[in-house]
Amino acid sequence: MRLFEPIKIKTLYLKNRIVMPAIHVNLGLTGRKVRRYYVERARGGAAAITVAAVTVDIFLDDQAWMWEGLPAGSCAKFREREAELVKEVQAAGAKIGMQLWHGNMFPAGMWGGYGLGENKITGDRVGPSAYANRRAFTVSEIEAVIEKFARAALVCKEIGFDFVDFNGAHGYLMNQFFSPFYNRRDDRYGGDVRRRMQFGLDCVRQSRKLVGEDYPLLFRMGVCDTKPGGITAEDGAAFAAELEKAGADIISLSTADVTPLFGPISSQPVGTFVPYAEAVKKKVKMPVMGVGRVHTPELAEAYLAQNKFDLLGIGRQLVADPYYPEKIASGKFDETVTCLSCNVCLDTAMYEHKELRCSVNPAVAREEEHALVPAQTAKKVFVIGSGPAGMEAAVVASRRGHKVTLFEKEDTVGGQLMMAAVPPGKWELERYRQHMITIMEKAGVTVRKGRSATVNTVVAGRPDAVVVATGVEPFIPDIPGVKGRNVALAFDVLSGKKDTGKRVAVVGGELVGCETAELLAQKGKKVTVLRRGEEMAADVGPSQRGPLLERLAAKGVRLLPGVKYEEINRKGLVITNKQGQKELVRADTVVIAAGSRPNNKLAEDLKGKVAGLYVIGDCQKPGKIVDATAEGERVGREI
Questions:
Q1: d(C-alpha 435, C-alpha 431), whole Å
Q2: Largest Cα–Cα distance in the chain?
Q3: CA 93 to mean position of chain CA atoms
Q4: In 3-state terms, what secondary structure has residue 612?
Q5: 481 within 8 A of 440, measured Cβ to Cβ
Q6: C-beta of residue 344 within 8 angstroms of C-beta of residue 359
């Protein structure tokens, strides 16, 4: 496979073409936890790891640390600990690089950094031009920042990093200087497209002077954006050619926009940003790295064969499965854990400012404490229910040496994954379900489909432990007429058991209701979504909510929050709207998506009748996949 052919770029020897780009993980900069996170990805077979970007000042100025309340000498201590990280990752089999950035987009705290976007004494905020309450950099300030990038690159080389990566994408400072939307200067650093390149080019040139000719410099560039009068693809390709002349050795292509990166990744096509790489590769001789939902080896091989890129950047997929490269290399693609492109990783680390989490990898950012330990005594374990929580518990318990039998009352395993995979952009959930079926089989789990577990059958089986993961049942709101013939449950609509008429009213405006509405609108139905609460999709992750509502609006879905349900009749749904007026929402079908409640009757009935009883997943408390898999993995380790 070309994906596993080595490549040499100056002093950088890569054993294959897989590079993990910088991803914000919120695990700190140098501690044991973050080191184990990166080491695990190195062990998994990636050729190179780029650690999460840090501000240039952290390497250079001890006062930056002191203003954060940390003692003098923290800067030197940081360099020492980064050297430890470098050695550990290299010993695990991967090269390691540092991404450098300037934090004027995020001026508060060490994340943005002292002296970058905000002076902590004066409160002065700066940018390429005066915009968004920022004044424009002076030329001398620009030159000082360029020198900081170069000095930080040199420090990275001295620490032992195999390469340095400049972040010139996603709206960060180098990208802002290149963008006519942000850069409205008329001097050496702004004006026509050539002068807008100057800041990035000078950062590369000055860094090259300090690090020497052989040290690899990678530039992550935002090729184009969607802002009015923003960067065009032609401008981006021209910039790439100039970066090569300035001394860049590898170029990684992404977007200048934040929205496609931080938005609904699941709705983006496979190979999201690969066309950018293809366009730039025609203009440069240096290796080009493509990124963006290249989740299968077949797709990667096709792109490499077509000369669309030379290196493949894999980010979220390595969060989901750090051993993805090794599994592919050994012909075990069916064992890889599928990234759902759900952005839970982004939401937790970036928006919630918590440690990185993953819907399908409960051990992420907890690699050491979640290492599987063989059970001291093999137990007979029954798992009731085959949703994400039940399947995860079954796999983990079986891998630890227990004899596990999973019972599923339906003829197909997967629980709510079956329905969750139906709405637009959610096909990866079906791939995940198929993956779980495969690894349950390989882990030795006995699966009994079409078998309802009762108290009597469970007790008669004399298990040592019982894991109840029986999921939820739909919540039916108390609306007059809710049992009428023109009423259907969202679960039944998504599963294909029920069809709807041309006009549909969806009762419930959280994720299930909104995604059901999107599916129906895509089929040409005229859809209205209603909810009692004041906001639609209030519990949907921050990176997904806005784009979801935008897609609904684009498809003509009417959204009515803040209503009171009066009755369902043959003409549709009668409500009292937000303005306090009675209104008939005409509908051939009223779809109920008003939430769910735990289906925990079996768990209650088993109390005191089995030796070890564990209740997990939605039958304990309705939640998201990330919660279900975390509980399943925890119980699998505890049994």
A1: 6
A2: 83
A3: 25
A4: coil
A5: no
A6: yes
| Residues 19 and 53 both lie in one domain | yes
Neighbours of 468 (CB within 10 A): 29
Sequence-distant (6+) residues with CB within 8 A of 106 are 112, 117
One domain, residues 279 and 314: yes
Query: What is this structure's pTM?
Result: 0.91
Q: Which residues are catalytic?
A: 172
pLDDT of residue 212: 98
Given 330, 351, 372, which residue is the final one in a domain?
351
Query: Radius of gyration over alpha carbons of the chain, in Å?
Result: 27
Q: How far apart are CA 393 and CA 544, in angstroms?
A: 28
* Rounded mean pLDDT, 90-107: 84
Three-state DSSP at 225 gives coil
- Spatial separation of the C-alpha atoms in residues 247 and 89, rounded to whole Å: 26
Please identify, among 298, 330, 351, the residue that sits at the C-terminal boundary of a domain: 351
Q: Is the pLDDT of residue 67 over 80?
A: no
* Residue 65: pLDDT band with limits 50, 70, 90: low
Judgement on whether residues 503 and 562 belong to the same structural domain of the protein: yes
Domain identity same for 123 and 154: yes
Residue 545's region, left for phi above 0, alpha for psi from -120 to 50, else beta, is alpha
Structure tokens belonging to residue 610: 């089995």
In tens, the pLDDT along 358-393 reads 999 999 999 988 889 999 999 999 999 999 999 999
- Domains held by the chain: number: 3
Q: For residue 526, give its domain range.
A: 487-594
Question: Would you say residue 262 has pLDDT above 60?
Answer: no
Bridge partners for 217 per DSSP = 164
Q: Say if residue 36 is in the same domain as residue 169.
A: yes
- Find residue 127's DSSP bridge partners: 136
Mean pLDDT calculated for residue range 23-42:
91
Residues 453-462, mean pLDDT to the nearest whole number? 96
In this structure, what are the phi and psi dihedrals at residue 187, rounded to the nearest 5 degrees?
A: -150, -160
Matching residue, tokens 């501000």: 55
β-strands 7-9, 12-14 pairing: antiparallel
Residue that the structure tokens 């049994």 belong to: 639
Which pair of tokens denotes residue 120? 């902590």
